[in-house]
Amino acid sequence: MTKKLTRAVCMLMMVFGTAFLAKAQNVISGTVADKSTKAPLAGVSINVKGTTTGAASGQNGQFSITTSSPSVTLVFSY
């Protein structure tokens, strides 16, 4: 009886553990550029609205943010 119970608990842990790890991660990436000159902008702060998730654009204006939701609002500040 104990062996069957242990097996059942292990199976449940594997199923729920896999579901937890399979939580979708979405990567949003892009390049921040000046509207008129199209030159890349470094040091722009990009944040996911309503969260503490954020990033800054690099020297070439590129950024990448990982979120748990595919639909978010990004807030840019320079």
Write a concise synopsis of the structure shown:
With 78 residues, this protein is of the alpha+beta class.
**Rg (CA only):** 21 Å
Fraction in helix: 25-40%
Question: Strand-and-helix sequence, N→C?
Answer: HEEEEE
Number of strands: 5
Which consecutive residue ranges, at least 5 long each, have pLDDT under 50? none
Q: Major sheet, described briefly? A: 3 strands, antiparallel
Taking the alpha carbons of the first and last residues, their distance comes to 64 Å
Shape: elongated
How would you describe this protein?
With 78 residues, the protein is of the alpha+beta class. The chain has one helix at 2-21; strands spanning 26-31, 45-48, 54-56, 62-67, 74-77. The strands form two sheets. The chain has a three-stranded antiparallel sheet, with no helix packed on it. Strands 1-4 form a two-stranded antiparallel ribbon. The longest helix is centred in the N-terminal third of the chain and has 20 residues, at 2-21. The mean pLDDT is 82.
Topology:
Elements: H1 2-21, E1 26-31, E2 45-48, E3 54-56, E4 62-67, E5 74-77
Antiparallel strand pairs: 1-4, 2-3, 2-5
Summary keywords:
78 residues, alpha+beta, three-stranded antiparallel beta sheet, two-stranded antiparallel sheet, 5 strands, elongated
